[in-house]
Every structure is written in C-alpha cells, then in structure tokens.
Amino acid sequence: MRLCPAFFDCAESALLVDFGPRFDRRLSLSILQLSKVLEASMLQGLKESIPALTSLTVLYDPLELPRGRIVGKIERLCDGAGDSADCGRIWEIPVVYGGDGGPDLEEVARRAGLSQEEATALHAGQDYHVYMLGFLPGFAYLGDLPKKLETPRRATPRASVPAGSVAIAARLTAIYPLESPGGWHVIGYTPVMPWDLKRRKEPLFQAGDRVCFKPVEAAEAKEIERLMAEGWTPPCREAS
C-alpha cells in the first residue's frame, strides 16, 4: 500500500512519522516493515524506531543525522513500499473465560445479543495481530475484535485489574501483564504472563506477532501455571 506520512518533531532528537487517524492490520504491517527496513539501513545517527497503531517514532542523533536526511530516507522508503505479509510468530494462549476471572463476560455477551458461550467462541475463534506494545511493559494491543464484540471502554475504570486478565475495549483485546488500574472489560484470565522479568528479558509478544486464544477450564489453567513456574513456554510457531 502507498504510505503518505506527515512528519512532526518530538524535541530535537525524535521524529513522529504519522500515517493518519485510522488503523488496520494492512497499515500496521506496512509500518512494521518500514521500521524493519529503516533500522536495517544502518544510518549513522539512527538510534531506534518504535511502531505504534498509526505512526512510527524515530529516535536519532541530530549531530550525526540531519533531520532532512532522515525525512528524505523515510519518504523514499514510503514511495517504494508495497503490501507486507504477516511474518511474526503465532502464539496460542490458554484462557479461562467468565466466572470470577472474567466478571464482564456476561455484560459483553448481553450487549452483543449472545450467550456467554457464544461470546467466548467468537473471541477465541480467530487470531489477533499485535499492533504495538504500550501502557504497561508487555501490554500488547491485539486486533481486531469481531464486530459483535466491539464494546466501548467501561464508564468507570477499575482501580485494580489483576495480572493475566484478558480484556476488550473498542476494536481491541489485550492481556494485562501486571496488576494495574484499567478501563477495559475483563472477560477472562490466562496463566501466561506477557511480562516476566524472572524468566525473560523481553516481553512475550512483539509487534507483528499473532495471538490466538484457547478456552480452558480452571484446573487446566492451574496446571499450566505450575508448568510455567518450571520454565514452560506457551506454543508458538513461525508464520508461513
């Protein structure tokens, strides 16, 4: 797809490359490919590029890399950009839906005109693209939800959402990697923690990965939690 960015300065050493107000998987894949190619170019003075839903933040040293040069490089890459394919890893994440760990599933299902079982099957019936990480360490914004499950954020956020909570808001779903306040609707929980400094240096998910959810019973989740304490990692495969 053709990329038409606008450029905004973030202080003197960062550039926000903005691609408009709307996000979708096709645009995200193009932004991720742009980030990958830009970093592979090894431009002297280029420090890092950070993809988001509809933008790319580029960090650079203006004493080594003039703004005009980095803008020109990005414009040329955008002019030559084509459609990008899914190429990240595919994760299978177990989820216990509803009950005490998913207190909002009943309301989400009711709004959608579904039973809780139907809402669970709908949420777990497709894979989700990791658009970006943010808000908390390892918090991956996953999309897109099935239309029937699209739900506005809670009118009143919770003061505390447990780590491992699986939640939805608007077109997105996510796993809370840490206990924190949150305004998303919690529909289940997983024993798989996306952020665990005791076991890994990096978050479990990276932008461009895909995540699919597998409904499990509480007893199976408890066993998976035990296995994870012993070093088990959830199933993952490379995209074909």
Features:
240 residues, alpha+beta, Gyrase A, domain 2, Cyclophilin, 2 domains, seven-stranded mixed barrel, four-stranded antiparallel β-sheet, 5 helices, 14 strands, 24% helix
Structure, explained:
With 240 residues, the chain is of the alpha+beta class. It folds into two domains: 74 residues, Gyrase A, domain 2; 150 residues, Cyclophilin-like (Cyclophilin). Helix content is 24%, strand content 30%. It contains five helices and 14 strands. The strands form three sheets. Strands 5-12-9-10-7-6-13 form a seven-stranded mixed β-barrel. A four-stranded antiparallel sheet has the order 1-2-4-3, with helices on one face. β6 and β7 form a beta hairpin. The longest helix is centred in the first third of the chain and has 16 residues.
